[in-house]
Amino acid sequence: MNILFAASEAVPYAASGGLADVVGSLPKAMNEKGQDCRVVIPLYKAISPELRKEMKFITNITVDVSWRKQYCGIFTAVKDNITYYFIDNEYYYMRDGLYGFYDDCERFVFFNRAVLEMIRYIDFTPDIINCNDWQTALIPVYYNVYYKYQQGYDGIKTVFTIHNIEYQGKYGKEVLSELMGIPAYNANLLDYDGYVNMLKGAIETADRIVTVSPSYAWEILDPWYAHGLDRILVTKQYKLMGILNGIDTQRYDPETDAGIIEKYSVKDISGKNYCKLALLNELGLDEGDEPVIGIVTRFVNHKGIDLIRCVFEEMISMGIKFAVLGSGEKIYEDFFREMAARYPNRVSVTIGFVPELSHKIYAGADMFLMPSKSEPCGLAQMIAMRYGTIPIVRETGGLRDTVRDNGGINGNGFTFKTINALDMIDAVRRALIDYENKDVWNSLVKRAMNCDYSWQASADLYINMYKNLISEE
Fold first, then answer.
1. Per-residue confidence at 378, pLDDT binned at 50, 70, 90?
2. pLDDT at 473
3. What is the pTM assigned to this prediction?
4. Which structural domains are found in the chain, ordered by start?
5. d(CA 243, CA 15)
């Protein structure tokens, strides 16, 4: 099968979150299984000069953005046996940062039209176009409105993957004519609650809707999780399914990770103790066998930071040390800074995203705290388990699908159900009890490391879904 992944970011070219990891890993896993999976993203300023040198110019075309005609350059490169395409327009993409601009709607309207126009000029006709999040949500809309019956486009199926339903691409109705060029008789595809909602358009027109974990697929039918889209999703359940994301097991491997001081494996986990000592020394925390909890996250409300704030000092009084890495809302950044200043020997806080430090935390911490209020999939808990760091999570979305509570002895972490700080600290206490028994704890660490969260199983599920979709008349 020929599969084109359309996304707003992809490792190693441009990344702001987990979407880039998925788009950089899943096509690779599918190609290893005999498919021809390619990726298209915008040509951002953030892409390094070294990577730009590997790109080849294909052609330049003009792309309609409503009544405008805009320049579009098409470049290509091959990385890790994946063919990438890049949509170039310096006005839209030669900026510092990927998102957050006043004209993001116009920037990604252009990108969506350019992806479909690009197919005329490359030696690749997709059987499937897999779109990801609101930045590519107009591709199935445009395909159905303009391209479906054009020569060279017939028979293409569209799949839309929801990585986080909170971000929907909502704008005023004036963008229909001013930017999107959607005819009035098709406006109903995007109209939702008095606004233009790009995500709603993809839900209406895509042939399949996929979420990044099975639990998230049924959670978003509930108003509490759906951010207003539950009404339309309930009517589209027949094409909704969940497939759990995987992680790049080559990038995250304690046996080969060059960023940690001592390599180790499930057969010999002794190196993890050296990684812990090195982490404590680097962060200036007290040495000793007390447990270290790692937190690598964005400091935003839905990550459950409020729960941590409620009982943070109580957890410190229980003998726990913290290695915190992340950035986000100022109120949370200020809180963690205050805790680091108040407990300099027990709390380390690094504001920002430092990939090298994240690997050291995954390897050197004993436990990994992730009390998310909602979590479509979550990669951090799977990475932590890969390094033998035991996750403590709330049962939601992908966290529910990947972490089994150790209360039954055969789990791989510790879980709690409600959005309640007391429930969270109870899970922490249960983890501390098992931590005191080294035989029990080492068995738990090995069970976590034996969990297989590679892309191989997920890639099979995607391939089967694509095949079933193509076979439908």
1. very high
2. 59
3. 0.91
4. 2-246+456-471 (3.40.50.2000), 271-453 (3.40.50.2000)
5. 22
